Amino acid sequence: MASGPVTPGADTPVHVALRTTDVDEARAFCRRLYYGPMRIEPVGDPARLEFSADVVLLGPITIGEVGYGTDIRLTIGELETSYHVLLPLTGMLRSRHRGAVVYADPTRAAVYRPSGDIELDWPGTCRLISVKVERGALERELDAGLDQRVISPMPLGASFDLVDGPGRTWAALVRLLLSELRGPDALASRPRMAARWRDMVVSGLALSVEHPYGQEPAGLQGPYRPRTVKRALDVMHAEPWRPYTITDLATVAGVGVRVLQESFRQHVGMPPLTYLRRLRLDGVHAELSRADPGRASVSEVAYRWGFTHLGRFAGAYRERFGVSPSHTLRHRG
């Protein structure tokens, strides 16, 4: 176990790990490795806190797998020095940043710019990979491929897809690097190899996250989903409980209903309303998994996520998760 971060720009990775049931120890660890002005408060049962983190520091990037074991609320002021990405491995995370609400899960990452406060509702069922990239490193990567200087901080999109396209590949690269660097005598831990991995993580993020420069240089263009699809996905993730119709979503996307449906089938793999229903079901499942059975009810949670017909909701829930909603509530955690 290392005692602290490496010097920025160094090519020698450093592995730092902690497992504790002491919230103060967990706070100190996260503040030292990530950001000083960070507040971490348990909102679930403090006795169930089982913080675990495996973190690798490699020059301008910090990658860690983190979980708390109980529900927490994390707040932080402006990041200032870094861009940040959260990649849930399990569960769903609710994030608010610069007025945008994002529900991140294993299909969708949350992205943070260096400006604007952040608030996270992080359930105990959610384990994630946290990726911190120094501000200058990502901006230099984009600037190198452009004929114009980028605006700092860059106006990045609030989330990106992890199911297909460049986001899926980048997330797999990050997971593999973390796995390699946590093990002994890994090839990736040698400075020359580590430097190449580091550069791939930074350049891959530049290709995965949405930014206003994506259409400028051919070298930075990736297989992005059409903006029409992204607009519809963004509003669904921002407020999944709203009673959207297919016409509503087509209007947001700026295309006709048939065009939107065909675009979703081609680029998402399912119709828009099917995707919305899955998003809502996953939200209900995440909330029931951490709720107190004595205080919460299935109907209240279902209504909160936009389900108005409880019979159809229960059938869809069982089809997706293999158990009833009430079973999830009774056997939470």
TrEMBL record:
GO terms for molecular function: DNA-binding transcription factor activity; sequence-specific DNA binding. It comes from the Bacteria. Keywords: DNA-binding, Transcription, Transcription regulation. Residues 230-331 form the HTH araC/xylS-type domain. Signal peptide: none annotated. SUPFAM superfamilies: Homeodomain-like. This is Putative AraC-family transcriptional regulator. It comes from Actinoplanes missouriensis (strain ATCC 14538 / DSM 43046 / CBS 188.64 / JCM 3121 / NBRC 102363 / NCIMB 12654 / NRRL B-3342 / UNCC 431). The lineage of its organism: Bacteria, Bacillati, Actinomycetota, Actinomycetes, Micromonosporales.
